[in-house]
Specification:
The structure holds two protein chains of two kinds.
Chain A lengths: L5 E2 L5 E5 L11 E7 L2 E8 L7 H5 L7 H5 L7 H16 L5 H29 L4 H21 L8 E2 L2 E2 L7 H24 L2 H7 L7 H6 L4 H5 L7 H4 L20 H23 L20 E8 L4 E8 L7 E5 L1 H7 L1 H5 L4 H11 L3 H5 L1
Antiparallel strand pairs in A: 1-2, 2-3, 3-4, 5-6, 7-8, 8-9
Helix pairs in contact in A: 3-4, 4-5, 4-11, 4-14, 5-6, 6-11, 11-14
Chain B lengths: L2 H11 L4 E3 L5 E5 L4 H10 L7 E9 L3 E9 L7 E9 L4 E3 L8 H12 L2 E3 L33
Parallel strand pairs in B: 2-5, 6-7
Antiparallel strand pairs in B: 1-2, 3-4, 4-5
The chains are: A alpha+beta, B alpha/beta.
Chain lengths: 371, 153
C-alpha cells in the first residue's frame, strides 16, 4: 500500500506501527495519521494471523472444533473452550455434573488470573517499567504448572469437552492451588505497591485514552475495557452460567473512562477471581467429571448462542446447525475485535507516545481479533 | 421484556415484520429496504433502547444470504432480538448501520470481504482482514474453493 508511507495531501505524516512491533503484542498493523505529534487517525490493518477458524470449523465435528478455539485467545484458552462446550451442551441439552461445573469455574478463574497477570507485566513494559514483567511471569508460571499437571498443556489446554471436562483433577491439584493462593496473596499487593501509586505511571495513565460510556456501548466494547467506562457488562453477573449465580464476587466498575480506570478494573478483578477460587477449592463435589454423551454429537436443526466472560470481555459462540455432525455456520464474536474498533476514537487528539499506553490497557490478543 | 411483549412492540414499529419464536430469542425477519429506518426506531425507541449491537454476521444458504444482527439493551439486559434480513445472493446489498452502532463499521467490513455483501453508505468499505487483491473472492461463501491453501479433513 504505497499511499501509507510519507505524507498525505494535507501535509500530515503517515506512519506504520507494526506488524512487527513490540508494543502491538503480536502482528497488528496500525497506520497512524499524525499532525506533528498529535494523532489524527488510527487505522488498524488486520489479518496477519488470520486462519479463518470459522471456515475451518465448518468441516470439523462438534467434538473436534473446540480444539481449534484454544488458538484464538491463547491467554484464555480454557474460557474459549468453555464457551464452545456450553453452546454444544445447549443444543444437545446435556446436563453437566456438579463436579465438572466447579472444576470448570476454578479453571476459568485461574486462567483469568494468569491472563491479567501477563497483561499487567506486558503493559508495564509498554510504558517503560521493566521490573513488573519479571514479577508477572513468575506468578503466571505457577498457574501454568498447575494447569500442566491436570490438563497436560500449558497454553492450549483443550480441557473442556461437551458434557464436562476431559479428565479428572490431578491428585495434587487442591494442595497446589492452595499453596498458590497463599503465595499469590502477598504478591498481588506487592504488585499494587510497585506500580499503581508510581507518579510516572499515574501521569502516563490518568486522563489518557478517554472512552465515554456511550462510546463504549456503541463500539460494542466489553470486559474490563467497558467496565473502566462504567458499563455493567460482566456476563458472569448478568447472564450467569454454570454456578456463577451461587458465588460471592463483585463486578468491578470504574467510572474514570481513562487508561487508569481500565488498569484498576483488571487489577481488582484478579482479587475477585482469587475470591472465587478460594470459595470453591475446598468444596469440589465428588462425582463424575463428565456426563455420558454419545460418541457422535448431532445438534438439532436450529441456532444456538452461548456467551462467557473471558479475560478480555464477552465471547459469543453462534452455531447454525442443519442437524448434521458439523456446524453449518459458526461465528465467534470475539471481544478483542470490538474493543480494537474503539482505539481510533480513543486515540484521536492525543500524543503518539500515549497510544502505546492505550493499546496496553485494551489488552489486545491478536489471534483473538483475526481468528 | 418477555418475547410476547417485544413482539407486540416491534409489530407497532414495522407491520411487515415476520417472527420466529423457536430459538432462545425472538427472531425478526424484515425486508432489506426497511432495515435502516427500522434500525433507527429500534435504537431510539424510549422503551426498547437497543443500544448494544453485539454480533453481526451473515449466513450463506446457497440460494440466498441472510444477514443476522444480534441486538440487546444495556438498560434492560433481558431485551434481546435477532434481526434477520434475506439478501439476493447474486447482488447482495444492504444499508450500513454504522451510523447508529459504531461497532457495525468493523463487523460490516468483515462481512463485506468474507461474503461480498455491499453495505451502502458505509464510511470506509475496504478489506479489513484479507490482504490486497482479494476483492471479489469471498472465502466464507459455500462455493468458494482454494485448492492450494484450504486444508480439509
Amino acid at each position: 500500500m504505497v499511499e501509507e508511507i510519507g505524507t498525505n495531501t494535507d501535509g500530515d505524516l503517515l506512519i506504520n506501527v507494526g506488524p512487527q512491533h513490540p508494543a502491538t503484542h503480536g502482528v497488528l498493523h496500525l497506520v497512524i495519521t499524525l499532525n506533528g505529534e498529535t494523532i489524527k487517525k488510527v487505522e488498524p490493518h488486520l489479518g496477519y494471523i488470520h486462519r479463518s477458524i470459522e471456515k475451518m470449523c465448518e468441516s470439523l465435528t462438534y467434538r473436534q472444533f473446540i480444539y481449534v478455539t484454544s488458538r484464538m485467545d491463547y491467554l484464555s484458552a480454557h474460557i474459549n473452550n468453555h464457551a464452545c462446550a456450553l453452546c454444544v451442551e445447549k443444543g444437545m441439552q446435556i446436563e453437566v455434573p456438579a463436579r465438572a461445573q466447579v472444576i470448570r469455574v476454578i479453571m476459568d478463574e485461574l486462567t483469568r488470573i494468569a491472563s491479567h497477570e501477563l497483561w499487567w507485566g506486558a503493559m508495564a513494559m509498554d510504558i517503560g517499567a521493566f521490573t513488573p514483567f519479571f514479577h508477572a511471569f513468575r506468578e503466571r508460571e505457577s498457574i501454568n504448572d498447575i494447569m500442566e499437571e491436570t490438563c497436560g498443556a500449558r497454553l492450549t489446554m483443550n480441557y473442556m469437552v461437551p458434557g464436562g471436562v476431559m479428565a479428572d483433577l490431578h491428585p495434587d491439584f487442591q494442595k497446589k492451588v492452595k499453596a498458590f493462593i497463599s503465595f499469590y496473596k502477598t504478591k498481588i499487593d506487592e504488585a499494587d505497591e510497585l506500580l499503581t501509586g508510581n507518579i510516572i505511571f499515574q501521569n502516563r495513565m490518568k486522563g489518557v485514552g478517554i472512552l465515554t460510556k456511550e462510546d463504549a456501548i456503541s463500539y460494542g466494547c466489553t470486559g474490563p475495557t467497558a467496565r473502566g467506562s462504567g458499563v455493567r457488562c460482566d456476563i458472569r453477573k448478568i447472564y450467569p452460567y454454570e454456578i456463577y449465580n451461587t458465588l460471592e464476587f463483585d463486578e468491578v466498575i470504574e467510572t474514570g473512562c481513562d487508561s487508569l480506570s481500565r488498569y484498576l478494573v483488571r487489577l481488582k478483578e484478579i482479587k475477585q477471581s482469587l475470591r472465587i477460587v478460594e470459595q470453591l477449592i475446598d468444596n469440589i463435589p465428588e462425582g463424575d467429571f463428565q456426563a455420558k454423551t454419545k460418541a457422535v454429537l448431532k445438534l438439532p436443526k436450529g441456532e444456538f448462542y452461548s456467551r462467557v466472560e473471558t479475560a478480555r470481555g464477552e465471547l459469543g459462540v453462534y452455531i447454525v446447525s442443519e442437524g448434521g455432525t458439523t456446524p453449518y455456520r459458526i461465528k465467534f464474536r470475539s471481544p478483542g475485535f470490538s474493543n480494537l474498533s474503539a482505539l481510533d476514537k480513543m486515540a484521536r487528539g492525543s500524543k503518539l507516545g500515549d497510544l502505546v499506553a492505550m493499546m496496553g490497557t485494551l489488552d489486545l490478543v491478536i489471534p483473538d481479533i483475526d481468528r | 421484556m418477555e418475547k410476547e411483549e417485544l413482539k407486540l412492540k416491534i409489530t407497532e414499529l414495522n407491520t411487515t415484520a415476520t417472527f420466529d419464536e423457536t430459538g432462545e430469542w425472538l427472531n425478526v425477519t424484515v425486508d432489506a429496504k426497511d432495515w435502516l429506518p427500522f434500525a433507527h426506531q429500534l435504537r431510539n425507541d424510549p422503551v426498547l433502547v437497543f443500544n448494544y449491537l453485539f454480533c453481526v454476521t451473515c449466513i450463506d444458504w446457497k440460494t440466498q444470504l441472510t444477514m443476522v444482527y444480534h441486538l440487546s439493551s444495556t438498560h434492560d439486559r433481558s431485551n434481546t432480538v435477532v434481526i434477520k434480513i434475506n439478501l439476493d445472493r447474486n447482488n447482495p446489498e444492504i444499508e450500513s448501520v454504522s451510523s447508529i452502532w459504531k461497532t457495525a463499521e468493523f463487523h460490516e467490513r468483515e462481512v463485506y470481504e468474507m461474503f461480498g455483501v455491499k453495505f451502502l453508505n458505509h464510511p470506509d468499505l475496504r478489506l479489513l482482514i484479507l490482504p490486497d487483491g482479494w476483492e471479489g473472492k469471498n472465502p466464507m461463501l459455500k462455493d468458494f474453493d482454494d485448492p492450494v491453501n484450504m486444508i480439509r479433513l
